[in-house]
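User: I'm writing a short report section on ligand binding and want a predicted complex to refer to. Could you take this sequence and shikimate-3-phosphate and write out the structure as C-alpha cells? A short remark afterwards would be nice.
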Amino acid sequence: MDIRIHPGKTIKGSINIPGDKSISHRSIMLGAIAKGITEIEGFLMGEDCLSTISCFKKMGIDIHITPEKVIVKGNGMKGLKAPESILDVGNSGTTIRLIMGILSAQNFTSVITGDSSIQKRPMDRVAIPLKEMGAKIIGKGNTTLAPLTIEGAPLKGIEYTLPVASAQVKSSIILAGIYAQEKTIITEPSLTRDHTEIMLSSFGASIGREGNKIIVNPAEELTGQKISVPGDISSAAYFIAAASILEGSDVLIKNVGVNPTRTGIIKALKEMGADISLLNERNLSGEAVADIRVRYTPLKGITLSGDIIPLMIDEIPVFAVAALFAEGKTIIKDAQELKVKESNRIAAMVTELKKMGANIEETPDGMIIEGGFNLKGASVESYNDHRIAMSLAIAALKAQGASTIINGSCTDISFPGFYGILENVITVK
Ligand code: S3P
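Assistant: Sure. The C-alpha cells for the complex follow:
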C-alpha cells in the first residue's frame, strides 16, 4: 500500500515503540532449543519475527501467542524435528543466518529460503565458517545464495576471524558453536551487537569475551527463561531523528534498549549537536534500557566512519535524513555493508532523496550530504525495504508539499503501527 505523508511542524509527546527485533528473534530461537518454558514479554509482532516463529513451529516447537506474551515450549538442544516443508524466512536476514547455525548441528537435512530480497543476499559469509565446522550446505551460485539445503552433522569447534563486522554471522557461528565438540573462538574486526552472547549466558551457556574475541564453550543443555524485550532503538531512531530536525520538538521515547553496541545513532547525532538524554536507566533481562528524551536543537555536519558504523548500521538511512538538515557537509564512510541489506540502502536513499531535491551523492562506501537545502514533496520508492520507507517518511515531514511513499506499508516488517504513532505525536503545519 502507498502512504501519503504531509509536512509536519514539530513532534511532541511520549511514545512507546514495539519490541527489539534482534532480541525478539533470539528469544524464540533460544527458547526453542532450551529445556522448559520461555516466556517473552514485549515480543515484536513484526513480520520478520513472525517468520522466525513459523520456522520453529515447522520443527515441532509449540509456540503460543497471547496478547501479553509469547510462550515457547522448548524441547532441548536435540529436540527439533526435521521440517516436512521448506523453511521460509520471508524478508528476514536475521532469521535465515542465525537458524543456519542451529540447522548445521541437527541430525536432519532441511531446506531454507525467503523472499526475492533474501534470495539475493550473501549467505556465503555464514556458509563458509559453518562448513568449516562440518556442516554440508548447498545453495545457488556456489553456495552463496538461498534457497539453501543444510545437512546437519556433528560439528567441530573452530577459530574464525570474521571478514565483515556482522552480528548475524557472529551469532550463527555462536549458535553452531554451542553444539560443537570443542570450543569455538570468533574474532570480530569491530564490535557488533552482543544480544546473542547476553541471552545465551542467561540460558546457562558459557560464553566469554577477551578483547575482540568471543569464546564459545560447548553447551550440554540450555534452560528456558523469562525475557522482557525492550523497545527497539532502531525503531526509536526515526523519532529521535524527527525531533532533531523539526523545530520546537520535545519527545520522550519510553523503555528503549540502549545496549552500548546499539547506540551509535545517539552518539553520532550528539556529535552533530543534538539534545538527547537518557533517563531512568535500568537493566532488563541483562540488557541496558532507558527512556530517551530528544529536544530540537540545530545540527552541524560531521564525518561518520570506522568503528561506529556497525553500532548504528540500520540507522544510517535515517541518519542521512537528519544530515540533510544540518549546517554544512556530512560524509558517511566505511558503510559498504549497507549495499547488501534488504535493499542497496546507499543507492536507494541517494536516488529517492534526490527526487525530493536533496544535495546527496553516492560514494563507493557511503554518501556525501550537503545540508541546508530545502526538500520538496515527491513520489518515492520504498524498494519494499522497511527502513527506507520509514527514513523517507521522516524526510517527507520536512519537505514542502506532500509526498507519497510507494509501498510504504512494508514498515510492518519491523515496526507495525509506525504511521499511527507518528500521526499521534506530529503537529501538522
Ligand atoms: C542484526 C544484525 C545486523 C542488522 C540486522 C539485525 C542482528 O545485520 O543489520 O538488522 O539481529 O544480528 P548484519 O549482521 O548483517 O550487520
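A remark for your report: The CA atoms of residues 336 and 365 lie 4 Å apart. The first helix runs from residue 21 to 33.
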